[in-house]
Every structure is written in structure tokens, then in C-alpha cells.
Amino acid sequence: MTCALSIANQGHEVYLVEKDTDLGGTARRIHYTLEGLDVQAYLRDLVRKVYQHPLIHVYTDAIITEATGYVGNFVTKVKSDRGVTEIKHGAAVIAIGADEYKPTEYLYGEDDRVLTQLELEDQITKGEDRLINSQSLVMIQCVGCRNEDRNYCARICCSQSIKNALKLKEINPKMDIYILFRDMRTYGFSEDYYREASNKDVKFIRYELDDKPQVEAVEEEGRPVLRVTVTDPILGKRLAIDTDSLAS
């Protein structure tokens, strides 16, 4: 949408093709930034500007059925709720967006207390009692990446965990929060929030790729908990952390 507005503001006609019903993609699931900015307010304003711009034509619930031509002379057929539209254009911007990784480990999908960071953020925003009043929460970083299948760092996960940890500490300062990480990569000035989280007693424990945390659902004194076992490199011992919720 930002790209569409930039091009349209330079006087060029833009056709914005969106596969979903609403514009915004993953941003629709993000409610606040690490700095505390309101993402949904920004998104609403951006969508309004797109729809009100006279040079931007929006197609939602749309798929591209055919694309032909060459640089400066493309023809693309788009199927949407308007029917099939043939668009002649000189250039194309492919903005593929991103999908959230759904873990296949740590009981995700088997136990509803195990969440992704976006699902955690959604529950924080909604004020879910079970989460907000939890005694403890464990976050496990680098789930599904920096391995053989995905040998890269997503660059945003550490900041996301810090963001959610600080928000939970703001709501419930007594909650015990543990972040299990391989390397904390809060880039640039985000390092300040890492220090803030540490000062607010968010506990950070490093783990190695060949010694990942283990998670099991158990009962402790009649209370159902998720038991996370991890090796603390400083103590040189295995720790068992009983937690009410887990984010990965």
C-alpha cells in the first residue's frame, strides 16, 4: 500500500491486486510496535488513503489468471468479485508479504497454552484472563529457523518477544517471564528495550542448537503446567521451569 501510494502520488495510475478480502496482510494482526506505536491506527489511515486516492484501483479477493507481455507493455488478467479485468501496464511490483511460521514442535497445535508470538500478542490485546493472570510464561526463540531447513535469522523474532514481554510486565509485573534464546538479536536501538526487559526481571537463558529445550505437559501439585527443561550454560545444570503458557 505504501508503494502504491508513492507511485500514485507521482501521477501514475496504480492497480492494487490483493488476494484477501481486506488490505493489510500480516499487519492486521500486529497491534503495537516495540516503541509503543499503534499499528492498527496507522493501518486504518493507510487503507483510507489508498481507497480515497483517485489513481489507485483496488481489487480484493483477487487472483491473477494470466500475465503476458514484456517490460513497458504487460497485460495481466485479474479475476475478482468484479469479474475478470484485463489490465495493461508498464511495470509490476510483486509484494508477496509473509506468513507466520506454525511450529511443529513444543506441543504447538496439541496444547492451547502453546502460542505463536502473534497469537500471544492477540491475547494480550484482548486481555485474555488466563494469560494476563498467569504466574509464568516461557518464550522459546529461533523455532523453525537457523537450522538446515531455514538457515537464516528472521531478524524480528527477538524484538517481538521483548515487545510482548514488556507489555505483559506492564500489565502484570509479578509474572515470571523467561526467554530462551540462541542469540538475542535486538538490532540497533532495540537493544535499549532488551536492557529494559532485563531490568524488569525478564530472565534470559541461552541454549545451543544441539541441546534444545524440551516441553511436556504435566501436573504439579494438582496444577496443570507446561514443564520446560533447558540447560543453563552459566550454572551448567538442567533447569525445569513450570509455566502456564509458552510462546514459540
List keywords for this structure.
single chain, 248 residues, alpha/beta, FAD/NAD(P)-binding domain, 6 helices, 24% helix, HdrA-like, FAD/NAD-bd_sf, FAD/NAD(P)-binding domain-containing protein, oxidoreductase activity
Which strands sit side by side, in order, in the main sheet?
6-13-7-8-9
General shape: elongated
Number of helices: 6
How much of the residues is beta strand, in percent? 25-35%
CATH-defined architecture of the largest domain: 3-Layer(bba) Sandwich
List segments where confidence is low: pLDDT < 50 over at least 5 consecutive residues: none
Describe the structure.
- By secondary structure, the protein is of the alpha/beta class.
- The chain has two domains: 2-89, 3-Layer(bba) Sandwich (FAD/NAD(P)-binding domain); 114-247, FAD/NAD(P)-binding domain (3-Layer(bba) Sandwich), CATH 3.50.50.
- Helix content is 24%, strand content 30%.
- The protein is built from six helices and 13 strands.
- It has helices spanning 2-8, 39-52, 117-126, 129-132, 157-171, 191-199, and strands at 14-17, 56-59, 63-70, 73-80, 83-89, 114-115, 136-140, 176-181, 203-206, 214-220, 223-232, 237-243, 245-247.
- Strands 6-13-7-8-9 form a five-stranded parallel β-sheet. Strands 3-4-5 form a three-stranded antiparallel β-sheet, with no helix packed on it.
- α3 runs parallel beside α5 (157-171) and α5 (157-171) packs parallel to α6 (191-199).
- The radius of gyration is 22 Å and the shape is elongated.
- The two termini are 29 Å apart.
